Amino acid sequence: MQSKKSVYPRIKRGLDVLLALLMLAVTLPLFPFMALVIRLDSPGGALFSQWRVGRDHRLIRVYKLRTMHTGAEPLAHLLKEPGEIFASREDDPRITRVGRVLRRLSLDELPQLVNVLKGEMSFVGPRPLILSEMNSMTRIALERLNVRPGLTGFAQAEDREGKPEERLARDLWYVRNMSFWVDVRIVLITAREMLGPGWA
User: Fold this and answer.
1) In this predicted model, what pLDDT tens digit does every residue of 56-80 receive, in sequence order?
2) Angle in degrees, CA 105, 66, 187, rounded to 5
3) CA distances from 139 to 82, 145, 196 (A)
């Protein structure tokens, strides 16, 4: 008899592929409209791409709908506190008007459904690490690279504004306790947050 640990990854992967295909089928017609609105709102392309660190330290090319002004990443020196996750702040001057709406509804993440289909990401998992974060990560913190990164995760669902150490603790909790029902709970919390008053 197969153990639960051996069955869960197959179920998780199967659901990832099924949900990614369904969501792409539903949202694909929206992409031309969103791309047009993004480009009309601010100069630059509609897509933003960045190398991230995925499972087993493999580099993956992640695409998102652009929510910041072109060339805005170097403005990270505007952070008000060391280690602050500026991208989550409402007063971040790098984010465009359209970008704020896309982020509130998590529509900027839709292109990553392709990463899910390719097996580079999952629907639920830790946030994919930025390359520059690798130098400051401890061995324990790098446990999050033992699983596929996710479109959403325990840290994003519970507290998008949390401090870096709190978000890391939640990511590590997920890696050590991940299961089908934990994934379901995180997806439901994410849906509630997207549709709730906090996103209005």
Assistant:
1) 989 999 999 999 988 766 555 444 4
2) 30
3) 21, 10, 37
